[in-house]
Design a protein that fits this description.
Blueprint (H helix, E strand, L loop, with lengths): L5 E12 L2 E12 L3 E5 L6 H8 L7 E6 L2 E2 L4 H7 E4 L11 H11 L4 H14 L15 H12 L6 E5 L7 H16 L3 E6 L2 H7 L2 E6 L2 E6 L1 H8 L2 E7 L5 H12 L4 E3 L4 E6 L2 H14 L4 E7 L3 H9 L7 H5 L1
Parallel strand pairs: 3-8, 3-9, 6-7, 7-8
Antiparallel strand pairs: 1-2, 1-4, 4-5, 9-10, 11-13, 11-14, 12-13
Bound molecules: adenosine-5'-triphosphate.
The site of adenosine-5'-triphosphate has 12 residues, from α1.
């Protein structure tokens, strides 16, 4: 892939804080007009990568190009073409929500009339119209977050960086943001999104890069990542707890096991290779043994399970877990 068709390219990025690497050979390519999800636990290096790509942070080694420009050599050009939301709101607390947005628009060289119109559109889109004329300092955490997001969309950026955009948002605001992102992408914007929410990456990203300990450890569509590392499982719930041992014996014989048993919810689960064949065989054999089945599903791996396999720890891992 050439730089011209890639909106974001990072090659071998390294960044240490006091000798501790935050990025340790970070590589990433994001084709123009797509959404890339950087998925990883706390401390994996996602924010560091985004801040470097958005020209806010110097790096120790490697190369990065955004919207066709070298981040280290042409930070001004990069800055003019990107939008950024972060965990740190750049909102003025004295100004009202509307005034903040108009100011952001003016800083982006929009004519006053256009800035006002765009501000009103965004206030509507993010459910802030009623609070538009209150000072932002009086906004709740969720409202500030929405205002911060709206500010990053005041002009249509070529590349938009969204650092954990929906942390702390209620479902309605979260859906509003996802809709806004989808419509930007439909208009050609490239989005790099960091998230700890597997569902968010699943919903929005064309491709997902799994980040752990400062580097990308796996890359693909959500379906590819799931298929690469996961296995399908049969899960069934029996009606009577007393029948669990008999049912487990049947399931083990047919699937080859290992069978997990959760006595509390009367559930058995086991990996399967031949999905439908195994399902039919298990159900027939259980019926022959007089085991009453209350529920049965075949399911593929979740992204949570995929993440665990790829990194050796869960996606909600703490900094301490990542550090060891
Ligand atoms: P989070 O989801 O918590 O934002 P992250 O994946 O974005 O995590 P980073 O914030 O990039 O991870 O942090 C990567 C590593 O660098 C962590 O170990 C973090 O403690 C460390 N780090 C980040 N910023 C600094 C800083 N300013 N000074 C020292 N260490 C830092």
């Amino acid at each position: 892939m050439t730089y011209e068709t890639s909106a974001v390219v990072a090659e071998g990025l390294r960044k240490s804080y006091g000798g501790t690497p935050a990025l340790d050979g970070f590589d990433l390519t994001v084709p123009a007009g797509t959404v890339c999800g950087l998925l990883g636990p706390n401390g994996a290096g996602k924010t560091t990568a985004v801040r470097i790509l958005a020209t806010l942070l110097r790096f120790d080694a490697g190369h990065a190009r955004v919207a066709g420009y070298d981040v280290a050599r042409h930070p001004d050009r990069v800055r003019a073409l990107i939008g950024l939301t972060g965990q740190y709101a750049a909102v003025d607390e004295i100004l009202s929500g509307r005034q903040n947005l108009i100011l952001f628009g003016r800083l982006r060289h929009l004519p006053a009339r256009v800035a006002r119109r765009r501000a009103d559109e965004l206030l509507d889109q993010f459910g802030l119209a009623d609070a538009a004329d209150r000072s932002a300092g009086a906004y709740s955490g969720g409202m500030r977050r929405r205002l911060d997001l709206a500010a990053s969309l005041i002009t249509t950026p070529r590349v938009l960086f969204l650092d954990e955009p929906t942390t702390g948002l209620d479902p309605r605001s979260r859906n509003g943001l996802w809709e806004a992102v989808r419509s930007l992408v439909a208009d050609g914007t490239t989005v790099l999104l960091t998230t700890q929410y597997l569902e968010e990456a699943d919903q929005l990203a064309d491709r997902i890069s799994v980040v752990d300990a400062g580097r990308v450890v796996a890359e693909g569509t959500s379906a590819e990542l799931k298929a690469r590392i996961g296995e399908d499982r049969i899960e069934l719930v029996v009606r009577h707890a007393a029948q669990l041992p008999a049912a487990a014996g049947v399931v083990e014989r047919i699937t080859g096991g290992p069978v997990s048993v959760d006595v509390e919810i009367r559930q058995l689960s086991a990996p399967v290779v031949d999905r439908i064949g195994a399902l039919a065989d298990v159900m027939r054999a259980l019926q022959e043994h007089g085991v009453a089945v209350e529920d049965v599903v075949l399911r593929g791996p979740t992204l949570d399970e995929a993440f665990l396999r790829l990194t050796g720890h869960r996606s909600a891992g703490t900094r301490e877990e990542v550090a060891v």
